Amino acid sequence: RKEVEQDPGPFNVPEGATVAFNCTYSNSASQSFFWYRQDCRKEPKLLMSVYSSGNEDGRFTAQLNRASQYISLLIRDSKLSDSATYLCVAPDNNNDMRFGAGTRLTVKP
Amino acid sequence: DTGVSQDPRHKITKRGQNVTFRCDPISEHNRLYWYRQTLGQGPEFLTYFQNEAQLEKSRLLSDRFSAERPKGSFSTLEIQRTEQGDSAMYLCASSFGGTGNTIYFGEGSWLTVV
């Protein structure tokens, strides 16, 4: 099992749709998690951190389920500008921050 | 600009040549990371430094790769005898404090080995 696994995608959704991505992690002792956004051929940029049960920032909500060892990212009212790859980050068993392979989202008019 | 900076941004080299990338982290950050990313994949952890000490190295980091952070500030990543499989974007990142703090990335150094 990979240390951080994400929905493979791609997700193609219309503007205004709600879309959710899941990410599972293997280190049950992990305390902090992140979602990054990465545009094509650009560096990853922090979208949200998830330290406890969840976090909400405008149209974006991140939730943590410790029992099932997954985090999710919910995007409401999708905009064209939300089109990007979304990367999940969690500590591995050595406490190194590991990235998932990313989930690609395309929001269409 | 007070972000993480990387140099060069793009490098094309012939197979067998050595290349070196430099990273200047955010000034107050004590942790510095190197990742590698190929198209369609997430960033793969290579190594990280806590100040000048290299605390972790991935199995991905073969003997041809070496990273240094001699004074706990900037870092270099050298690849010796480059191979075509080394073609990737090499990302440097930094953070303040321990594991679990936000990691900030530079814009990356693109390497193409021909």
Give the tally of β-strands of chain A.
11
Q: Output the helix-strand order of chain B.
A: EEEEEEEEEEE
Q: What characteristic shape of chain A results from the CA principal axes? A: globular
Arithmetic mean of pLDDT of chain A: 91
Low-confidence stretches of chain B: none
Order of helix and strand elements from N to C terminus of chain A: EEEEEEEEEEE
Q: Please describe the biggest sheet of chain B, giving its number of strands, its sense, and whether it closes into a barrel.
A: 7 strands, mixed
Sheet-strand content of chain B, in percent, reads over 45%
Low-pLDDT stretches of chain A: none
Protein traits:
heterodimer; A: 109 residues; mainly beta; 6-stranded mixed beta sheet; 11 strands; B: 114 residues; 4-stranded antiparallel beta sheet
Provide a brief overview of the structure.
The complex is a heterodimer of chains A (109) and B (114). By secondary structure, chain A is mainly β.
Draw up the topology in text:
The complex is a heterodimer of chains A (109) and B (114).
Chain A: E1 4-6, E2 11-14, E3 19-25, E4 33-38, E5 45-50, E6 54-57, E7 60-65, E8 70-75, E9 84-91, E10 97-99, E11 103-108
Parallel strand pairs in A: 2-11
Antiparallel strand pairs in A: 1-3, 3-8, 4-5, 4-9, 6-7, 7-8, 9-10, 9-11
Chain B: E1 5-7, E2 10-13, E3 19-24, E4 31-37, E5 44-50, E6 53-57, E7 65-68, E8 75-79, E9 88-95, E10 104-105, E11 109-113
Parallel strand pairs in B: 2-11
Antiparallel strand pairs in B: 1-3, 3-8, 4-5, 4-9, 5-6, 7-8, 9-10, 9-11
